[in-house]
UniProtKB/TrEMBL annotation:
Transmembrane segments: none annotated. GO terms for cellular component: aminoacyl-tRNA synthetase multienzyme complex; cytosol. Belongs to the class-I aminoacyl-tRNA synthetase family. It catalyses: tRNA(Met) + L-methionine + ATP = L-methionyl-tRNA(Met) + AMP + diphosphate. Keywords: Aminoacyl-tRNA synthetase, ATP-binding, Ligase, Nucleotide-binding, Protein biosynthesis. The gene is Mars. It comes from Chloropsis cyanopogon. One of its GO terms (molecular function) is methionine-tRNA ligase activity. SUPFAM superfamilies: Methionyl-tRNA synthetase (MetRS), Zn-domain (SSF57770), Nucleotidylyl transferase (SSF52374). This is Methionine--tRNA ligase, cytoplasmic.
Length: 313
């Protein structure tokens, strides 16, 4: 504040010279290097003011502030395009998932351009770079023993010849009796549901009756990481700026003990799983989507690792 008052008193001549933009923006030795991302908006709808205010606008404001301070700043974002919601919307609109993503990615890009959001790069998750990086991270986890195999019971529609993801199933809520509950949640009572718990389940595609069928899936072995995670959290909580709410939620997860997390799905729209026995599956969107921050940066510059694997700068 004192420095700002001093410069204000001395006038514009006291301001540092404006930074000359570089393309691509890469970390510079000896300078303050800032990488900014905002949450990747999901691609299956038109963005509204809530999307922009909730994450994009605050990141844009901070990016503009950093540039005014002459800090070396890269601001990236993009559309999150894999997952069941995209498949569902594509069926409703009579398009392929890729056609739907192409349409709504363009809509998103136009909306943010109209609001003059100052992205250095606005990308997407359906790219070869996303596949390469996600599969590489998967292979590293596999080689280090952080993955498990287990059997899940899922609903399968024999008429459609496919396992049904949560959003492709409707039925009667086992808790409140609501007749149009989804396979992941009841919109009436709000409780989370396992699709196999639904009464009178129906396939949303053909209205047939699915049957419970076992299927093999891969899980991230989070319990194996619990000790390392706790030690890391103690260090970062002591030195960092975590909010009290973030600390409370994280402590709750650890207090209850971490559970293995399924990272594969019986879908066709997603990043393929590169492992024999699982090549007909794709990665669960919440394993895949966060990697989009890396792959979007990689589509911006082939030197993306200088941003993501460079703690010294």
């Amino acid at each position: 504040i004192a420095a700002a008052v001093d410069i204000w008193a001395r006038g514009p001549a006291a301001l540092p010279p404006p930074r000359q933009p570089r393309t691509p923006v890469l970390p510079v030795e000896g300078e303050r290097n800032v990488l900014i991302t905002s949450a990747l908006p999901y691609v299956n709808n038109v963005p509204h003011l809530g999307n922009i205010i909730g994450c994009v606008l605050s990141a844009d404001t901070f990016a503009r502030y950093c540039r005014l301070r002459s800090w070396n700043t890269l601001f990236v974002c993009g559309t999150d395009e894999y997952g069941t919601a995209t498949e569902t919307r594509a069926l409703e609109e009579g398009l392929s998932p890729q056609e739907l993503c192409d349409r709504y990615h363009a809509v998103h890009a136009d909306v943010y351009a109209w609001f003059r959001i100052s992205f250095d790069y606005f990308g997407r998750t359906t790219t070869p770079q996303q596949t390469r990086i996600a599969q590489d991270i998967f292979q590293r986890l596999l080689a280090r023993g952080f993955l498990l195999q287990d059997t899940l019971e899922q609903l399968r529609c024999e008429s459609c010849g496919r396992y049904l993801a949560d959003r492709f199933v409707e039925g009667t809520c086992p808790f409140c009796g609501y007749a149009e509950a989804r396979g992941d949640q009841c919109d009436k009572c709000g409780k989370l549901i396992n699709a196999v718990e639904l009464k009178n389940p129906q396939c949303k595609l053909c209205r047939g009756t699915p049957v419970v069928t076992p299927t093999q899936h891969l899980f991230l072995d989070l319990p194996k990481l619990e000790g390392q995670l706790e030690a890391w959290l103690e260090r970062t909580w002591a030195a960092g700026d975590w909010t009290s709410n973030a600390r409370h939620i994280t402590r709750t997860w650890l207090r209850d003990g971490l559970k293995p997390r399924c990272i594969t799905r019986d879908l066709t729209w997603g990043t393929p799983v590169p492992l024999d026995g699982f090549r007909d599956k794709v990665f669960y969107v919440w394993f895949d989507a966060p990697i989009g921050y890396l792959s979007i940066t990689a589509n911006y510059t082939d030197q993306w690792e200088r941003w993501w694997k460079n703690p010294q700068q």
